[in-house]
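worker-03 picked up job from queue 'complexes'. Input manifest follows; two sequence lines, order preserved.
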Amino acid sequence: MPSRFHLDPHLPEPIYRQLMDQVRRLIVAGQLRAGDELPSVRAIAATHAVNPMTISKAYSLLEAEGVLQRNRGAAMSVADGADAGNEQAIDLLAPALDRVVKEAAQLGLTQAQVVAALRKRMGGTK
Amino acid sequence: MNTALIEAHGLQRKMAGKPVLRDISLNIRAGETLGLVGRNGAGKTTLLRCLLGLAFPDGGEARVFGESAASMSAQAKSRLGYVAQGGDVPALLSGKELLDMMEGWQPNWSRPWANELVQRFAVPLQTRADKLSGGERQLLALVLAMGHRPDLLVLDEPVASLDPVVRREVAATLAELQADHDTAIVFSTHVLSDLERLASHLAVLEEGGLPFLREADSIKQDVLLCLIAGRQGPVARPEHDGILSWRPSGMGSVRALIDTSRLSLDVLRRALDADIESRALNVEDFVVEYLQ
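worker-03 finished. Artifact:
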């Protein structure tokens, strides 16, 4: 299958993290479902010309998190239950939220100010 | 699988009384890719040649597949591929003649794989090597070094004279070789952006010393570029091994590379009584900052 992943080695974010993030997003968005097989390490490594260990590392970490499972023949697929609901969706915002927290601290903003700004931006929705 | 395929202990070499390599130690395991970067003249070629026993160190030792690099067995050599700087191949022979020769020499030579490489890299086979362009010669040298699916591949500036499309093809092929064969790769380069994607480890060679060797991921995760401004005037560099570089950047402030796995910015901020702005770097920006 053509690669669904966008791996950019020039970003400061390590490639294995980019891949982990994108697999989680595809699952939360319903584009990958329990049992769906992921491309082989070799296929992703060759398509993106990156070190295969980088891809293996991402897959192993996702396996340890219970997001992926290893099948016979070493192919990886989405683990049973990993696609349940979008409760984990909020986790995907963590990097962006971390950045907000960090920049708010640098700017000397209070928690209340940041929350108010966020609420306003989201149109006051609950 | 976890033993080092190539290792150096305290390598030293002098040329005309001047140190070219100073106490270099490193090792590379199966599946790993070490990118060796440094400015021109930093000693990259000398280091690679010493690692392979093609040049002799004045001190220390290099070992390949557990054997002394200076006296490698034929068996060890048959597991090794090497591309010298500029793709140095015998000038008077054609690609076809060279491939036939390798097939006779290399017990593990695979003709189908070599042909596949020739196709992918579009190497002209009928032309004498000295009539090839620099890029074609480099590609031919790569085919000659990879046709036996080596366990260890040492590449000195392997993509210097290649166009971006072929460079990507070479990088993809190297990744494939690693996926299939767990090949360890050591390459040197001064244009990092192409091979950065392949490197699991990065070593920065500076005036013959190797002060920095790390996993590429850990550079991105742990090392931050910091702009440090003292609240009470200029700050002096503290002694700490988490500080990788430190240089004044005008108006009393300092640009520093901080390894936050060893030194937290909060600690530094308090110790210096300074404001610190930080950002993460990609590997290329890191190297430029580090070598400045």
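worker-03 released lock.
Residues 210 and 268 of chain B are 26 Å apart (CA to CA).
The interface with chain A takes residues 31-33, 168, 171-176, 178-180, 193, 196-200, 216-217, 220-221, 277, 279-284 of chain B (CB under 8 Å).
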